Amino acid sequence: MIAYIKAGIKGFSGKLDGAIYYYHPQLKRTLMRRAPKLPIQPQNLEYRDISRQRVERV
Q1: DSSP label at 57?
Q2: Contacts by 43-50, CB closer than 8 A, 24 or more apart
Q3: What's the number of domains the chain is made of?
Q4: By residue range, what is the domain housing residue 20?
Q5: Do the beta carbons of residue 30 and residue 12 sit within 8 Å?
Q6: Model pLDDT for residues 1-57, shown as the tens digit of each residue
Q7: Is residue 7 part of a domain?
Q8: What is this structure's pTM?
Q9: Does any domain span residue 4?
Q10: Under DSSP, is residue 58 helix (H, G, I), strand (E, B) or coil?
Q11: DSSP letters along 1-53, please?
C-alpha cells in the first residue's frame, strides 16, 4: 500500500517543555508561546487534600 499526502503537513501543534506550539494559518508559520503558570489558590489545596484522602482509603 502506498500512502499519499495531498495537503502536506501544515505544522506541529501541542505542548512540549513548558511551551505551547500552534500553527497560524494567516502567517503560515508555527508559533510558540510560554505555557501559563496558574496561581495557587485555596480551592486547589482543598481539592488536593480530598483527592489524597480518597487514594489512602482504597
Answers
A1: H
A2: none
A3: 1
A4: 14-57
A5: yes
A6: 554 545 555 666 788 888 888 888 898 888 889 988 888 888 888 888 888 886 655
A7: no
A8: 0.49
A9: no
A10: coil
A11: -----SS------EEETTEEEEEETTTTEEEEEEPP-PPP-HHHHHHHHHHHH
